[in-house]
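Table S4 entry, Transcription antitermination factor NusB.
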Amino acid sequence: MSDRTPRNRGAQRGSAQRGQAQRGPDRVRKVAYQVVRQVTAEGGYANLALNKALREARLGGRDAAFCTELVHGTLRWQGTYDVFLARSVSRRLEDLDPELLDLLRLGSHQLLNMRVDSYAAVSEMVTLTRSELGQKRTGLVNAVLRKISQRSLEQWISAAAPSIEEDLIGHLAVAEAHPRWVIEAFDRALGDAAGGLEDLLAADNEPPRVTLVARPGLSDVDELGGAGAVPARWSPYGAVLEGGGDPGRIEAVATGRAGVQDEGSQLVALALAAAKVEGEDSNWLDLCAGPGGKSALLAALVDQQGGRLTAIEPLKHRADLVRGNLRAIPGDHKVLVGDGTKPTWPAGSFDRVLADVPCTGLGALRRRPEARWRRTPDDVRELRPLQEDLLDSAITSVRAGGVVAYVTCSPHPDETRAVVDAVLARRNDASLEDARDLFPGVPDLGAGPDVQLWPHLHGTDAMYLALIRKA
């Protein structure tokens, strides 16, 4: 896993400063701590908070890489570190102040999953504690992190996790840093899919590559290649920045002719655009558009045949993001602020409809490391009525002979096929079609008729698509 083979120079950073009493905290670690606090205490999103913090602190190069690994890795492995810390602290973790617990998690990540000298890691975290929480907390941080440093990650897993023979799911929850309920849901969803549960969990712990999309008619993969990207595996419009870096520096991205978009997200939009429909095919709808990556790809595609996309988003600030994504695409495309469950247009108005519904986001744990600990089974139950209502609205909105793509960025069975089956059981005017042929060249798509993509099989987020045709 990438967390176990990191790219930082924290050992040099710490060892060069040994013996300097009462010095200030390391700036990069301080930024990382503040971002983690923003995520855990304020419900922030790691990617947004980190990007903003890196800009404001003017961190780049190795400092930015160190900070990014420290933030994402700490959030990704949070639940596992808590198991180890519970064995190293003389009180219940629930009784520790949250800001102190976050410091201990940051220290644990450096000691167990990053190549940071143990003396440097402990010393730097003690100094950061003194700066952020005061002198009297430093003793506890020093003692606990020294206990953590006495074992490797593998040794801690062996000591703290249930044995594989006794409880496989419980063991994986600690060894692969996923909540038990998430692992159980993934196990159900995998079924007989190629690869295995452990491979999926390991892939979830690999930071994703930066994937770009060249919007049709505006840019192409060759142009992105000139900026250092290589063609993606499956999408004809996808390209990967293998060396990472800021995609905003690429002219096509900066002007909106290209964008940042996971390849799985591209594939489900392309599948909807490729499904056969008879007759008129110029009026497309994105029912849940924000932030607008799929909207932009669909708008570019429909524009090439003289059509129009209507994008609906209930939140104004997210509708503004959609407009930003569409800014370079010609044509009479519309972005409306509204509730997709309460259409203001006549039934049967559209030829194709995308219903990319709100979900738990469990399919994007690679890029949203905090989501695995933030989401609960209650979120699945609470989102279900909205998902069904949106799919029902999408089917009502499409014309006879038209198609609907029901999409989630979650493989949880109760957010995918269960929603589709429940809605179709209430209607007699729509049916599920085999969507696998709409993913040309992509292997391991399962038994159909719906399609589930996987990080460990396809290198994408775990996107789900069901294709529904109006009778």
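The two ends are 47 Å apart (CA to CA).
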